[in-house]
Amino acid sequence: MTESVSIVGGILWAIVGQTVLAVLLVASLWLLDQHNPKVMAIQINKDIYTSLLSTLAQVSGVFLGLYFTAVSVVASTVYARVPGDVRSVLMQEKVGTVYIRLVALLAAVSTMLLAMTAGGMQPHLLHLVLIGLLGIIAVFSFVVLGTRAFYFFDPTSLAGYVARDLLETMRLATPAGIEWDKASSQAHYQGLAERGLETYRNLVSNGGRWF
């Protein structure tokens, strides 16, 4: 029981940022609508609005499923024999991470607005604009991400991400970082740099040996 509670707590803590962002977006746009009579006067077909929300929620789930399927296929084929640190770079790829958060935000906002509509709240124009923009961005971003997925069939393409992380670690170890002058902080940054250099060496030196 304790372990289950701990797991649930960890999941909730991991998603709290995205949840708060979704709530703030919906709440702030609702307040803007309430203080703008011209916007409030615009009538929105509730049935079409609800259908659109349902469709976007379903599409966002499909996009997430397709993305994770593509990553799983790449990881189980191209990256099957690579060290774990190299696979972790693939899973933490920055563009993919941002896209996942964007699509998850679209799903969360659509679900929240569906719940509000089911509770009797009338559709709001700014909410409609928000989900429309998120939907368009998610679709076009999926096209870009789908094209980028082919780059990952070459593990050395990830070297740039490792190099940028190394540079950021080096920056944090200077006066630009927080508590940089403490021995514990320097030891932490040194450990990060050593792991980053080892990953970079694995990618650059051994990339061709894994095929």
In brief, what are we looking at here?
By secondary structure, this protein is mainly alpha-helical. The chain is built from eight helices and no strands. The longest helix is centred in the first third of the chain and has 33 residues, at 2-34.
Description:
With 211 residues, the protein is mainly α. The chain has 2 domains: 2-153, no CATH class; 155-211. Helix content is 78%, strand content 0%. It is built from 8 helices and no strands. The protein has helices at 2-34, 37-40, 46-77, 84-91, 94-118, 125-148, 159-172, 183-206. Helix 5 (94-118) packs antiparallel against helix 6. The longest helix is centred in the N-terminal third of the chain and has 33 residues, at 2-34. It is globular. The termini are far apart. The mean pLDDT is 81.
Pick out its properties:
211 residues, 2 domains, globular
Summarize the SSE layout with pairings.
Layout: H1 2-34, H2 37-40, H3 46-77, H4 84-91, H5 94-118, H6 125-148, H7 159-172, H8 183-206
Helix pairs in contact: 1-5, 3-5, 3-6, 5-6, 7-8
Our estimate of the beta-strand percent is under 5%
How would you name the oligomeric state of the polypeptide chains in this document?
A: single chain
Gyration radius, to the nearest Å? Answer: 22 Å
> Residue share in helices?
over 70%
Number of spatially distinct domains:
2
Structural class: mainly alpha
Query: How many DSSP-defined strands?
Result: 0
Q: Total number of helical segments?
A: 8
Which parts are unreliable, with pLDDT below 50 for 5 consecutive residues or more?
Answer: none
* End-to-end separation: 45 Å
Main sheet makeup: none
